[in-house]
Design a protein that fits this description.
Residues 14-102 form the DUF2460 domain. This protein has helices at residues 55-67, 172-178, and strands at residues 15-20, 23-27, 33-37, 43-48, 75-78, 83-92, 99-101, 104-114, 117-119, 122-125, 135-138, 147-162, 181-185. By secondary structure, the protein is mainly beta. The strands form 3 sheets. Strands 1, 4, 5, 6, 8, 9, 12 and 13 form an 8-stranded antiparallel beta sheet that branches. A 3-stranded antiparallel beta sheet has the order 7-11-10, with no helix packed on it. Strand 2 (23-27) and strand 3 form a beta hairpin.
Length: 187
């Protein structure tokens, strides 16, 4: 799986991050509400605007869009700047696996949780995972069924796709500068 081109800078003030929760709300006859969370973790979407963009950079992004067939093929997206991330999903333990890739690159201050409880007894391997993601290795496998999450300061790395499925090559550069390209997290 390829990374979204990170050699083309997008300024943090040109990056819009949206978080979506999935909540089922039912209105009862007595006027009360019943709410049920459908997703354990929110999904994120991003809108990346580029202030200054050469034609070569626009062509790189256009070719990446074409290669991934718009919204069809997933890719890895690294959030363009370092920040603190909380309660990021890592995996659900199977009771035998000891090595897990984190959704991060160049992370610091890593705290790992099993079912919301902080744990020790792991080795942190910076960029030692698949696609250069950070990795943790536990001395003993986490208990089967345990939900593994992490807090960290660093770059967030997610599997994503383009929000758009149809774009015009003739106005692509202007679109990137005025509207921005949409990136949607997939699971």
């Amino acid at each position: 799986m390829k990374f979204y081109p990170t050699e083309i800078p997008s300024l943090p003030n040109g990056t819009l991050k949206t978080v979506t929760f999935k909540t089922l709300v039912s209105n009862l006859e007595n006027g009360r509400e019943f709410r049920r969370r459908k997703w354990l973790f929110p999904k994120r979407s991003f809108r990346l605007k580029y202030d200054v963009l050469t034609q070569e950079q626009a062509d790189t992004l256009w070719n990446f869009f074409i290669e991934h067939q718009g919204a069809y093929k997933p890719f890895l997206f690294q959030f363009p700047y370092k920040t603190k991330h909380y309660n990021e999903f890592v995996a659900q333990a199977d009771g035998s696996q000891k090595v897990f890739d984190l959704p991060s690159k160049d992370a610091q201050d890593v705290v790992i949780y099993f079912d919301g409880n902080p744990v020790g007894g792991f080795f942190f391997l910076p960029e030692g995972g698949e696609y250069g993601k950070d990795r943790v290795e536990f001395k003993e496998p986490p208990p089967a069924g345990a939900l593994i999450t992490a807090d960290f300061y660093g770059y967030l790395v997610i599997t994503a796709r383009f929000a758009e499925d149809s774009l015009s090559s003739e106005i692509f550069k202007a679109y990137l500068q005025r509207v921005g390209i949409g990136i949607v997290e997939v699971r």
